[in-house]
Amino acid sequence: MNAVNLMQMALSEAVKCTVDVPVGALILDESNGFRIISTSFNQREILNDPLGHAELLALRSAAQALGQWRLQGLTLVCTLEPCPMCAEAIIQSRIKKVIFGAFDPVSGAAGSAFNLFAQRKNLPVPEVIGGILEKECALVLTDFFAAKRK
To answer: Rounded to an integer, what distance in angstroms lies between the CA atom of residue 34 and that of residue 101?
Structure first.
């Protein structure tokens, strides 16, 4: 399974968002035959939770599924560049790799607005690959916001 296939799976999560910004995420173990451990989509509105970002929900679900908060060696795939809150949670959880779709020039923390994944001395930072199916991921977002303005 390649990054495009994985992003298509994350996009299928994103489109489940009907009342929130459509962002999808999944966490997988690439070392174990690309086993999907968790999936999620933004649920801030559904849960009335400011922490209901797709990435955070996927991290929480993966930790519960594995029975540990350290998610070393795992990959997170998300349709939008992680925000600072999600980026720090990704670092704290010890995720090995982040693959994202659309860049977020307003609050993206993987280099667009900030770079929280710059090398640190105390915690390892994940490998970051951005722009996978960028146009498709961005279109889901622009369509959502266009519909909100109508």
So the answer is: 19
- Only one residue has tokens 């459509």, namely 22
In DSSP terms, 75 is beta-bridged to 28, 97
Six token digits for residue 25: 């995420």
Least Cα distance to 55 among 105, 3, 108, 18 occurs for: 108
Q: Cα dihedral sign for 68, 53, 24, 87?
A: negative
What mean pLDDT do residues 95-122 have? 92
Note if 136 is an active site residue: no
For residues 70 and 87, give the distance between their C-alpha atoms in angstroms, rounded to a whole number: 15
Enter the tokens of residue 18. Answer: 């009907």
pLDDT digits (tens, 9 = 90+) for 4-24: 999 999 999 999 998 999 999
Phi-psi region of 131 (alpha: psi -120 to 50; beta: other; left: phi over 0): left
Helix axes 54-66, 84-92, angle to 10 degrees: 20
Which residue of the set 13, 30, 55, 136 is catalytic?
A: 55
Contacts 24+ apart (CB under 8 A), 137-140: 137/7, 137/11, 137/14, 137/79, 137/80, 137/100, 137/101, 137/102, 138/101, 138/102, 140/11, 140/14, 140/15, 140/22, 140/79
